[in-house]
Fold these 4 entries.
Entry 1:
Amino acid sequence: MDEAIYPIAKNPNKSLLTAAGVGWCDLQYHCIRKDGYPQPQINYCTEGKGVLVTEGKNTEITKGMSFFLPADVPHEYYALGDVWSLEWVTFSGCGCAALLEQFGLKNAVTAFHEDPSEMERAWQSIYTILKRNNENASLRADSYMYRFLTEYQISRMKPAGTPSEFSAFKLAEEYISAHLSEEIAMEDIAAAAGVSPQYLCRIFKRKTDMRPFQYINCRRLSYAKQLLTKGNMTVSQVSEAVGYHDASYFCKLFRAQEGVSPKKFMSS
């Protein structure tokens, strides 16, 4: 499946930046443009892999990667295998050239986006607004076009070795999972995630609306329910297995969250 939307904008050349087209496809067809495309475009791969051929180079594009193509630059791209899903947007406007120059986007560029969430959110807003085709839809979409390009630039220019919120949170989750039955110190989680304890707290608040130790308690109690349901461990054994070495404290936390004691939960 695929879909392409090309809005009819009023006075597009007078807009600083406008979305000229937006769309997606589950399996990208073999695209050959010997004369390029009239507007700059950004394609983002959400699944599978394919190949981009431009400026004398063949580049494999996989999930999480994007490719930017300037206007009128000859190019070709095609899928490798049965799946190559792309989200794309083309754009124009009287301020477009200056913005691309500011971002250093003069030639074709490929990039890997470790955390594309903000970029994808902006793309989704452009797509949704233009699909509805309400009055002034093109004008509303234009505001998200600038946001999309900004988030694209921030994501692709992130210095190597600097963990994004996405990767830091993932590393913290992995550390917590591996040490759920042990004493866990904030400093150890932060070190595993490559960030400061203070920054880690902010990440967890944004991602989960909880502080790290609130999140750990939720994970431990969730795991405790799984163990209690099996019925082959005592409450004290479950308490130890999920990292609470004081069974009374474990029972207190469990009752506060579930409304019943661990023993009653196990027998229900």
Entry 2:
Amino acid sequence: MVSIYDLDLTLIRVNSFKHWVIFTLILLPFNLFTFLPILILYCHRCSGLVGRFEFKKRLTTIQSESKYWSIAGFIFSRYLCLFTNKGVLKHLDQPGINIIASAAPDIYGKCLPFLDKFDHVLFSNLSDGYYIELLGDAKKVAVINDMKKNNITLSWLRFYTDSLEDLPLARIVNELYVVYTKEAVFESFKNELADIKVSLLK
């Protein structure tokens, strides 16, 4: 059995990137090398000149070249542990292969202390100058490619998520756990995925 886990509002009970944006703003004055470009980027985002994806891409690009932000990412990953969903973490002890696939940037995602419970780790990242955000179809493709690369058979797949944005991946699994979400989202998953078992996990 292969179990696939989302991070935000699933393994942890918060949207990690929203917290990272605030965390970055707090630490920004202490790093002169990235202060101006990040400040300008924040201003552009607040004024609507930059969209969500472009903001995330540019912020990740700036921070990936700085040891300061790598250290900040490590510290931030420990902060996120304050919000772990222990009910979901217990499922990691089940036999089989565990995969985490998240749209969270790898600058802090790859530092999470509970990653030792996972056999494969997939986060949004920069690759050859391109920003790959694991959201929607991109997450499904990343998971399938990783499984093929590691000779993991697409037999029985179980998926844990909170978001309808993960529907593309949810459509190819055998069992879905909808975690810590609104009743309307749970019902939407059930309506969209009538042929598989959909359970609510809080």
Entry 3:
Amino acid sequence: MPIIAVAPLFFLLLMPHRLVAESAVKHLTIGAFSYLPYVDETASDFGSLAAITKLAFEVTGIEVHYKFFPLKRALREAEEGQVDGLIGCFFSEERSHYLDYSIPMENVPVNFFALREKHLRWDMEMLKAYYVGVQNGTSLATDLRKLGIPVEESQNNGMNLKKLLANRIDLFVGSTAWIQHELQHKFSVAERRRIEVLDPPFQVQKLYFAASKQHKNHQFIIERFNRGLEVIRKDGRYRKLQRRYQKL
């Protein structure tokens, strides 16, 4: 058969699968966890990252509904296919076995926090002598253990900050904006003054939307999200949403 006849036949064979995927994916249930200030369960539209994700899907004809869980539960729900995807994800090799990642949405600095009166600084060798607090379920715990750094996990940022103030850990590491938001809203001025951010950042992580690989159309979902995200970045709506939340 001539090549010129094969090419149209090949694309015709692909079309039914694509049309089925397009007609099947009209609604998504996306798992979320509180990741302030980016994702906020108490806000009317759940924060900037949730609003951006919803809009990116809307411009490609997909409706989004959010379900909130603690971080570890949200990851398990995605792994088991109980939700169609997750927002606010860092990339890790382990998670890539069950999550399909979008193009990056945000760059997020990750810093160490310490008591100001201890005058601590850090490098990779010094870290091995410290006990470092980290939130349970985050990829940071895995990263630190691989480097031989003693880690103590807690359920949330607030518990880690209380441990730091009580001298039960030497350092606390996490998303800088998230921890600063926690300090600003849940700790006294006197407590905030005792805590400092150590530079340089330990990491600059990227935040992603991720589709559960249990969803048979996960590649199509990621393709649609990426397309929608590019559209709202180009037409200015992405930046408009960012500026709106920066003022809050």
Entry 4:
Amino acid sequence: MEKQAEKLYQQGDKQAAVKLLAQKLQQDMSHADWFLQLSGYLTAGGDFEQAEELLVKAKQLFPETQEIDYNLAVIYFEAGKLAESQKMLQNITDSTLVSDVYYLMAQQSLQQKQLPQALMYALTAYDKNPQLEDNSLLVGDICLQLKEFKRAQEYYQKAVKIKSSAMVLFKLALTEMVLGEKSFQQHFAESQRIDPQYFQQHQQQLADIERYLKLQTKEDK
């Protein structure tokens, strides 16, 4: 990773980071990690076409680097090119990328509304790398959609142990609310304290859960 560009990016000067890294690559194209770093910045900024062009060039220079294949698969997925994304994943045999591959396969299945298959892939991604917060979160999110609230809670709790963010606490509180556990109030409060903007933006999700609970109450009567 090019440290100066990463420092600029983390400081919020993303355009400067992209410009610096592009200039570095014009002078020296012997670093596969620089290509991956720049493509990551471009993808995060929504510039999928330029990121794709960059990685296609990188693949020509570093044909054995399967991380390039994975990043291309991510770009195709984000750009809505599902078939191309799935095709790129088929090329990957690198054992260090197994968890990432299953994570993306889960997202692909989720996009196609294939929830049971998405859950299977997400659980495999988690099994391959249980220390990655995103893996626990994805399992929890899919279980939430399947209304498997206890199981969703279990994986959100795992995610909280890795990183106690506003998003994780909010999702954990949603499951606790459905399950009738009083701790949901504390976790909602912690989520709001950490990131008031996130908490406000996700009030619709809270309203959806409240409607679900009211419906369940009516059905039980």
